[in-house]
Amino acid sequence: MTTKKTAKKTAAAAPRTTHVAPKKSATQVKRINLALQGGGSHGAFAWGIIDAMLADGRLEVEGISGTSAGSVNAVLVAYGYLLNGPEGAREMLEKFWRTLSEQRAGFNSPESFKVFKMMTGTMSPYQWNPYNWNPFRATIEKVVDFERLRQDKGGVKLFLAATNVETGKARIFTNEEITPDVVMASSCLPFLFQAVEIEGQFYWDGGYMGNPVLYPLFYHTDSRDVVILHINPIYRPGVPRTAPEIENRLNELTFNSALIKEFRAIAFVGKMLEDGWLKPEFAAKVKNVLIHSIRADKALKDLGVASKFSTDWRFLTDLCERGRKESTEWLDAHFKDLGKQSSVDLRAEFL
């Protein structure tokens, strides 16, 4: 007989991915692009969103733009698709996040995070992390065959962003360029890790220039639908008053600013098309993009910046479940919009 204590332990150790019968039919499948924000361990929230999308069975992923943890998830989805289609992508996502947790790579207590903050506030990673140890790198190298991924010519199109330290420009890396260094460059927070050198250039986290960058999906994919998976809440009620609250809100604003600017540009182009401001010969060359987003404003409102460093399995699977819930609700409300209209009013929200 299993005791309550044993049962609880077994449940916590068991995989949380549920394998459900797809809802798709031959006429229902819609092709979309995904845009994945970064946010450390909060990337497990996006894991849950993507898992529910793939389990639903009515969506096919054409391209993914990713930044930071979003780049990690993007690579996992593309590699999983290569191995075994949507089910392979689901399996690869869970394998990565579980492996990361098993390595206990994060800072899983408030005390350890405080010590970490003291170190990064007084020393650079060239001092306190001279060997440039990065837990994400060790984990993703363990689960992804990057050489095989680069050789895949017909799979999910990847666009991973990193920020050039010297020029301040975003660089977008595509499938044939992607290596562990590229993923680490895209997720290189400068107070945590040393700048990543690629072809003689040095890179930091892509989130400073775009979190995520959307424009590659407009120019290099056929699908008009871009579904943005937010990790950093855009709207947070109330004024932060404690130092941690202020730091957390500044972090959210910083890593949303480039995306909001891109939203404004998309809205402006959409208005030009709708109001006939462009001559027909020019309008025909402009892609009328449909924007959708799954927001983190409510789902992650109780979490601060410290939790982005936690790799506790219970925490990661809780984030995953939150993501699944948001994804399921979004599909129920907006699947009908895909291919027809944006489900986000960019002008109302951001202009």
UniProtKB/TrEMBL annotation:
Q: Which GO terms describe its biological process?
A: lipid catabolic process
GO MF term set = hydrolase activity
Q: Which SUPFAM superfamilies match?
A: FabD/lysophospholipase-like
Ranges for domain PNPLA come to 34-218
> Which residue ranges does the record annotate as region Disordered?
1-21
Q: Which organism is it from?
A: Usitatibacter rugosus
Q: Where is this motif: GXSXG?
A: 66-70
One Pfam family assigned to this protein is Patatin
Q: Which UniProt keywords apply?
A: Hydrolase, Lipid degradation, Lipid metabolism
**Position of motif GXGXXG?**
38-43
Gene3D superfamilies in the record, alphabetically? Cytosolic phospholipase A2 catalytic domain
- The residues responsible for catalysis, as annotated, are 68, 205
Presence of keyword Hydrolase: yes
- Give the protein name, as stated in the record: PNPLA domain-containing protein
Supply the InterPro entries for this chain.
Answer: Acyl_Trfase/lysoPLipase (IPR016035), NTE (IPR050301), PNPLA_dom (IPR002641)
